[in-house]
Amino acid sequence: MFNYPHVGELGSAYVWVMLVAGIGLVLPFIVDRDRPSHRIMLYGITIILALRYAFWRGTETLAPVGLTVDFVASASLFLLEMCALVGSLSACVLMMRRVERSTEADTHDHWWGDREPRVAILIATYNEDLEVLQRTIVGARHLRHKNKEVLVLDDGRRDWLRDYCEAQGVRYMRRPDNKGSKAGNINHALARLAEDPEAPDFVAVLDADFVPHRGFISRSLALFHDPKVGVVQTPQHFFNADPLQNNLGLTASYPDEQRFFFDHMQASRDAWGIAICCGTSSITRYSALMEIGGMPTDSVTEDFLLSLTMQSHGYRTAYLNEPLTEGLAPEGLKEYVTQRARWCLGLMQIARSSMGPFAKNGLRLRDRWSVIDSVFYWLPSFIFRIAVVVFPLLYWYFNVIVVDAPLDEVLIYFATYYLWAQIVMNIMAPLMILPVLHDVSQLIGAIPISRAAIVGLIKPKGHPFSVTAKGGDRSRIVVQWRMMTPFAILLALTLVGLCLGIVSDRFAYNDAGDGKWVVLFWTIYNAVVLAITVIACVELPRRERHIADTPERALFEGEDGTNEVWITSLTSDTARLRGRRYPPTTRGVLEIDEVGPVEAYVITETRDGARVQLLPTEAQREALFLKFYAEDNAPGVGNVRLSAITSDLARRFSFSR
């Protein structure tokens, strides 16, 4: 590496880091993220810098080879890091391409002509409350597509749900057992549909907590103009905050954990022809589904396996990157982690199945790469995340040096690669990921996910399907002590080790040289990540989910006549009015756009208006559901809001929420 003698080796290293930072400031003005050549150039440089870093790590930073604790620890961390790096390099290759199919959907709108295809909308349910199911059923009934049938597939065999479906005019199905879990439930419905006088042309799948927007069917069907398209997947958006957003007070400033995958990674996968079916919010060609024998049941992630099985039969999965459904994200941290551990387990089952990357099947090389890429995401990356917070402790307590490197080389090889990778990420996926918070999101589920990955590879069969619980009381503060304990212990060990290293050389000796500064920075960073992770384990009460916060004009007809007011907060049961004050118990009628005149009475008087209790009819309640959930827009936070995230974090960490 070229140095600048007048500033010394360390100064030269800083110059190279600042050079990369300077290039990063200019790139957004000259790079077009939709041009393949620009994407290839930026990610190609990222790969070169990553390989350069890997070579340096393997040749310059490891402990001397031998039967020593230093070498075993140093080599172990290096091996885990390189496996995680392989996953990162694979993601870089994937992200070199990208396709958006909205124009294609516009071009082939109503390609079917006069005969509208028949669509069966399958809503699989097990233990969800009526509050959760009601909005999904109402949304499915009011889809713009006319030739449709809504079916509720009840694996909970609940009579009250059967009666509700009858009242709603939707078809109810139950089966005698729960064999095959969700996939088995859908296959039972497919068998029943095959007995009907008219079989459907397409099958849409919705989770019990996902509400379709009114254009979900018509927009998605447009991509089936190609007879080789077997599945059309649309993104999943969430109308509530996920546990990390909620517990860290970032509901209005940080995107949910799945936004990067659905907004960017799926579009890139689609460009390579390896988009993934994600179950809910998808539509499948019925004839193709019956050709492959129905939904696969060899994995608890039957959706990913469906895409692979379809591909082996000559059908592909297309991805329409438009907000056409919205659902309920896991509301509790336990449910959040359980869901991701289930996804991990399912992927390992696929890797060991007949659709695995090394099995004899009809998969293309790129499909096998898709599975391997997913294995490298779930297996080494989460284990490496645990190792990152554990290995520095070996130095502070036992003087075991796992990374022996001078500070200037760390800056030249690691800092330049890491900074460049972050710059490229924020150009290609603007303000989608922040390093510290991203590490927290990985660390918080790293232990159960790593366990699921290892167990799934060793023993892929015989694991029960874990349902993600939805609904329930979320109005209290709940401390997830069991989840918090390992992170609290690691945080305490990190802080104590740091103090020991500062005040005494008895444990962490100075013979580490510059390497001690590397471990020092590494330890402080870990302390920050662990502290945030511990705080994230304190679950805060959740606000009302059925809510529209965009102010809108309305008319309130009260005892003193009709007045124009602003609705600044609207739920299915209450509304906050601004513009005119009303005393408690005042009765009247609130005229709400798209809903109509709703009877209401004032609960409390506020400084600039009133909060009213709504008394909607059943038809008006349905209209409110459609107003909240069925409009064609994306709920939640699309990317990081830098202007708000700092204040939100400061407020949360001061415990003044």
UniProtKB/TrEMBL annotation:
InterPro entries: Cell_synth_A, Glycosyltr_2/OpgH_subfam, Nucleotide-diphossugar_trans. It comes from the Bacteria. One of its GO terms (biological process) is UDP-alpha-D-glucose metabolic process. It is found in: Membrane. GO terms for cellular component: plasma membrane. SUPFAM superfamilies: Nucleotide-diphospho-sugar transferases (SSF53448). Its main location: membrane. Gene3D superfamilies: Spore Coat Polysaccharide Biosynthesis Protein SpsA, Chain A. The chain crosses the membrane at residues 12-31, 40-59, 71-94, 375-398, 410-434, 484-503, 515-538. Signal peptide: none annotated. The keyword Nucleotide-binding does not apply. One of its GO terms (molecular function) is cellulose synthase activity. PANTHER family: CELLULOSE SYNTHASE CATALYTIC SUBUNIT A [UDP-FORMING] (PTHR43867:SF2). This is Curdlan synthase. It comes from Roseivivax marinus.
